Amino acid sequence: MKKYFIFVASLALVLYWVSNHLSLDQWTGRSLEYFQKHPHPKASPAVAYYVGMYRFSRSRYPEAVEAFTQVLTQYPTGQYASVALFRLAQSYEEMRDFTHSTEAYKKFLEEYPDDSASPLVKRKLGMMGIQTAK
After folding, report:
1. Is residue 15 domain-resident?
2. Which domain range does residue 58 map to?
3. Choice between 101 and 128, residue whose per-residue pLDDT is larger
């Protein structure tokens, strides 16, 4: 219990320092750089994915593409690969880069045909005028 309290207190102090000295944008960029230089098999893909999601939620799509691409290039078989590929395609779509968006959606269907997002991807491709296998 004492170790848990020390861990939580330390984490709170770090978060307090970060919130006072760095903006969240700076923190996400620095954490992405850190995990590129010092990869960790469990933490790195999660950090890159959630940095991408933060940027996606702020409509900063080119920066989201960078983070999702990092997940896919460094951890192509990891647990975040399918959602990173889906979000990558969505980011391109929001940027109106339909060529890259279509490529990413097609790749998603090839690699994850049974994923729960597959019907949505098929509908999106259908709206773009691209036929997919049923």
Report:
1. no
2. 22-127
3. 101
- Pull the structure tokens for residue 12: 């709170």
Domain for residue 8, yes or no? no
Task: Answer whether residue 10 shows pLDDT above 80.
Answer: no
Work out how many domains the chain is built from and give that number.
1
Tell which phi-psi region holds residue 129, choosing left (phi > 0), alpha (psi between -120 and 50) or beta: left
98-111 helix and 118-127 helix, angle to the nearest 10 degrees: 150
Listed residue (64, 37, 59) closest to 48, CA to CA: 64
Provide the pLDDT for residue 66. Answer: 94
- The enclosing H or E element of 106 equals helix 98-111
Cβ-contact 91, 65 below 8 angstroms: yes
Tell me how far apart the alpha carbons of residues 28 and 23 are, in angstroms, rounded to a whole number.
Answer: 9
Instruction: State how far the Cα of 80 lies from the Cα of 94, in Å rounded to an integer.
Output: 21
User: Residue 25: which pLDDT band, with cuts at 50, 70 and 90?
Assistant: low
